[in-house]
Specification:
Layout: H1 2-9, H2 13-37, H3 43-71, H4 75-81, H5 86-111, H6 117-146, H7 150-159
């Protein structure tokens, strides 16, 4: 049993190697950007460029590991995915942070230079708090309904 679990949860070696390689390439990009190209841009635009690279990193690595995760989802996870409202909350929980990053990229590249550092920090904090509040409001009712003994509740909902 333990051997089967290890086999299921153990990622293939090439994904781990690719993840490390991508992270190293990203780090080299950031260092080269800051060392040779950042001088031509304002602090805000440089922050936007770094956010663009982080966004690309999230898309590539997220897609890579999402496919692996979906392929190796355990039985309990499959039952939970059938629970009403769970899939849509997962999708929204993936999309909202990506939208936040896109908003911040757009803000820091095109608008932030017209505001001082404190105003830009305020925009950053308000947008992060707003997304966190939306996600909290979205997950709280689900957690209150299924949070106590989720496995029993999922099985009951599946029957009914």
């Amino acid at each position: 049993m333990e051997n089967e679990l290890d086999e299921i949860t153990k990622p293939s070696g090439w994904r781990v190697s690719l993840t490390i390689a991508i992270a190293v390439v990203w780090l080299i990009f950031v260092i080269v950007w800051l060392a040779f190209f950042a001088i031509d841009y304002s602090l805000n635009r440089n922050f936007a460029v770094i956010l663009i690279s982080v966004f690309a990193l999230i898309i590539v690595l997220g897609g890579l590991w999402l496919l692996w995760g979906l392929k190796h989802i355990p039985k309990e996870g499959k039952e939970m995915m059938e629970t009403k409202g769970f899939k849509s909350r997962i999708v929204i929980s993936i999309i909202l942070p990506l939208v936040l990053i896109l908003f911040l990229i757009f803000w820091f590249f095109f608008y932030a230079d017209n505001f001082n550092i404190y105003q830009n920090i305020a925009i950053f904090l308000v947008s992060v708090i707003a997304i966190g509040g939306i996600m909290g409001a979205m997950w709280a009712p689900w957690g209150m309904k299924y949070g106590k003994k989720p496995e029993d509740t999922w099985k009951e909902e599946k029957k009914g």
